[in-house]
Design a protein that fits this description.
By secondary structure, this protein is an alpha+beta fold. The chain has one domain. Helix content is 13%, strand content 31%. The chain has five helices and 13 strands. Strand 2 and strand 3 form a beta hairpin.
């Protein structure tokens, strides 16, 4: 009997151990799934709409209609949202006359808050040829095709084309409320001659905001006149650039010195992340170069 009782006690002890091993203390489990670290993107895209002598460039033609003269009626300065290449030009005009004018509005699209700079470089300002009337006003005109004449900056067109760039609201018209928004202005010989200017950097104020697909971060207006520009801003509102651009253009004082002259150049738009880059400048001060002082000899 004693052996049986001892066995029962042992079995009970084993059962208690087994029971205890199958139980748990108070507990809880939380799982964070799908964790990702991925680098963001910064992608600048640009579209443009242009008007020449108050006619819109629509589907490759001024005014939207061919007139039988492709030399003067075709246009290429309006394009859809794109990464830019050699087909995206801000002007491509080969028959300019004093008093001619063009207005563009560039739409800038960037997907993260960005500082933005523009580098502009004149690549040629040439006496393309020397007509008799041109020689009367520019007796130093030399035919660039003549043997030994390699001067690519002997023309006068850049000095007679005047530009204004400003922060526009997207209607292609310079308005009263945009008087303080002029970014740069002057003759092409100044504003297009190897300059770098800030659309937005830490010195000018806030970065250009990143936006979603189909939205616009900023608009930049550009107006040029073959002659003298004067501001004539219109009232703020929904304006029509084929009626008034906000500027006047007077070519009366342009003489024959720039006849047949040719101006070419490049625009480079650069977007730089603004986050963690609070002090970015498009034109940082030059770092002084320290010249070692030579030590004397005894």
């Amino acid at each position: 009997m004693k052996k049986i009782l001892t066995s029962l006690i042992v079995m009970a002890a084993v059962a208690l151990v087994a029971f205890g091993a199958s139980q748990a203390f108070f507990s809880d489990t939380e799982t964070s799934e799908g964790n990702i670290l991925q680098a963001g993107a910064l992608d600048l895209k640009i579209d443009n709409t242009c008007y020449y002598n108050n006619q819109a460039c629509i589907e490759g033609f001024w005014g939207g209609q061919p007139n039988g003269d492709p030399a003067t009626n075709t246009c290429s300065c309006t394009w859809k949202l794109s990464d830019l290449d050699e087909s995206h030009v801000l002007f491509d005009l080969t028959d300019l006359k004093p008093g001619d004018r063009e207005e563009d509005t560039l739409s800038l699209h960037v997907d993260n808050n960005s500082w933005m700079c523009v580098d502009i470089k004149t690549t040629a300002n040439d006496d393309n040829s020397c007509t008799e009337p041109e020689l009367e006003d520019d007796p130093t005109c030399t035919d660039p095709g003549a043997p030994g004449n390699a001067d690519a900056f002997d023309g006068e067109l850049a000095q007679n084309l005047n530009f204004v760039f400003w922060a526009d609201d997207g209607d292609n018209v310079f308005e009263e409320g945009e008087r303080e928004s002029i970014l740069t202005q002057g003759p092409a010989s100044d504003v297009l001659d190897g300059v770098r200017w800030a659309l937005a950097d830490s010195q000018t104020g806030e970065p250009i905001p990143g936006v979603g697909e189909g939205e616009v971060s900023a608009y930049i207006g550009k107006f040029f006149c073959f002659g003298d520009i004067a501001e004539a801003p219109v009232a703020d509102g929904d304006n029509d650039p084929t009626v008034a651009s906000g500027f006047t253009c007077n070519g009366e004082l342009v003489n024959n010195a720039s006849q047949t002259d040719k101006l070419t150049g490049d625009f480079v738009f650069e977007a730089v992340q603004a986050r963690n880059n609070d002090n970015f400048l498009c034109n940082p001060p030059a770092t002084p170069t320290l010249t070692p002082t030579p030590t004397g000899t005894e």
